[in-house]
Amino acid sequence: MHKKYSTNFISLIVKFLLVVTVLEGYFVLCYFQSGSFLSVAKNLIRESGTITMRHFSNNFLYQIMQEVLTTNGRAQVMNQNSLSFIFNYLNETIKQQEEFLKEHSSNAGYHSSEFNTFFDSLIYQNVCDAIYKDEDVKQGQCQTFMGGILKKGLYSANVAYWDNMRSMATDFNNSARDQRSIDIIMNSDRLIDNENLKDIYFDDSYKRLLSQLDQSIFYNFNQRDS
Question: How high is the mean pLDDT of the chain?
């Protein structure tokens, strides 16, 4: 299976690695000074990892769905049939989402109020307002995309993305698996919407979330040193 990752996704990985580098550098400085602070910093690294994993999982799901459709379900992923794998991975992705939310909840007391407010706005309220509030055209496009799902927050948008994936996998599994059936799914709004959702709105959201986490980490450093 050949996986292709966008430049935007690669840049997100680089941003995550920079977050880790900053934190690890600070570990050396603080190691003999504060065991409790080390524990906090490790938790923040774990939180940044869950943010990056959210975006990776959505990209990976899309790649698997393409493999299912382009190989008529014959592709293997990690020694499993690709169609079976996608159903199992969807269940795992949902568990990862809960871990992502749990990590933030555990660290909320160590973040700045600005980060916590941004997190709640992005995840539970309105992606369009959180990400594109100073860009009228993009904000308008965001508000109407997929019937306005992004106005319900990133959590709801992720659920819609997974529902589309499960729906396409189910339709393929129940189809005659001929070229006509495959073409209908490949040209459906569900696949096109999911591509735009991950490449535009998820990408912008998770990048901004990591950037805001960077600022919150430095806020934590400053609070400790003040």
Answer: 86
